[in-house]
Design goal:
This protein is α+β, with helices and mostly antiparallel strands and 250 residues long. The chain has helices at 7-14, 18-26, 43-50, 57-63, 73-87, 109-115, 118-134, 177-191, 195-202, 213-247; strands at residues 4-6, 33-35, 38-42, 90-95, 140-143, 149-157, 160-170. The strands form 2 sheets. A 4-stranded antiparallel sheet has the order 4-7-6-5, with helices on both faces. A 3-stranded antiparallel sheet has the order 1-3-2.
């Protein structure tokens, strides 16, 4: 069992308590094997998952045992999915270029149909890029290219904005049905989609009640802060593993 950590050894290694170890097991950040009533953690899995340290001496030498700082997308996805389940709204996290970092949670059919078009998907990414760039200070509400409202909150990593937590699509105010119908017809023509299908799906877009409009801005910010807390915790773990990796070079 020399190639495995016990829970106590992992606590000492990462300088965290037992509850944190079990929480990391539950949310997927750690993989473990239960032998009887005891958890065991592969050294390779721990190092690869939290930092990408190679067990191959040659590889470690070439890379200088540097630990990757890739985002823990599986953890961010969990927060995003939970947000969608509670808010009953679509959600995703994008980078500063508008590229999704996560899989869209609870996508509305109207938006999914537009995204099925190459030109429509490009327009959505352009809209997400603008949202990420314009919400640098706080949460803001935007109107996308398709006429739906979205709320976006900045996501920071070590003080640098890396993207945005975006939720939507909804109407803050119900549009005039005639104007909405004309807009949908133009979208269908622009992206070569079925106008009838889009007209049917746009009726599913809901208007936010007046008593929930403030939450439309505060909830995404809370979700973005939850993502940031995961990133902050990851940085601490990576720092500890980097020190361990440096020590093993001698």
């Amino acid at each position: 069992m020399a190639d495995f950590y016990t829970v106590k050894q992992l606590q000492d290694l990462l300088k965290v308590d037992r509850i944190t170890i079990y929480r990391m097991l539950q949310d997927g950040r750690l993989k473990g094997v239960k032998i009887g009533h005891q958890w065991r953690f592969s050294q390779a899995d721990v190092h690869n998952l939290l930092g990408g340290v190679s067990d191959n001496p040659a590889t470690s030498s070439e890379a200088g045992s540097e630990i990757s700082t890739t985002l823990p997308v599986h953890c961010i996805q969990t927060i995003q999915n939970l947000y969608s389940n509670i808010s009953q709204m679509t959600a995703l996290v994008v980078d500063m270029q508008g590229m999704p970092l996560t899989t869209i949670s609870a996508p509305c059919r109207f938006c999914a149909t537009i995204n099925s078009s190459t030109a429509g998907a490009a327009a959505c990414r352009a809209a997400w890029r603008q949202m990420a760039g314009d919400c640098r200070e706080r949460s803001q509400v935007f109107t996308c290219h398709a006429g739906l409202n979205y709320s976006a909150a900045p996501v920071f990593d070590q003080g640098v904005q890396i993207g945005a937590f975006i939720t939507g699509g909804f109407y803050l105010l119900l549009p005039d049905r005639y104007e909405e119908s004309e807009r949908v017809e133009k979208l269908a023509a622009r992206y070569k989609l079925s106008a009838g299908q889009l007209q049917d799906q746009v009726t599913e877009v809901t208007a936010i009640p007046a008593d929930r409009r403030a939450a439309v801005e505060t909830w995404p910010r809370a979700a973005a802060l939850a993502v940031q807390s995961i990133l902050d915790e990851r940085i601490g773990l990576i720092s500890r593993l980097q020190k361990i990796a440096n020590l093993t070079q001698f």
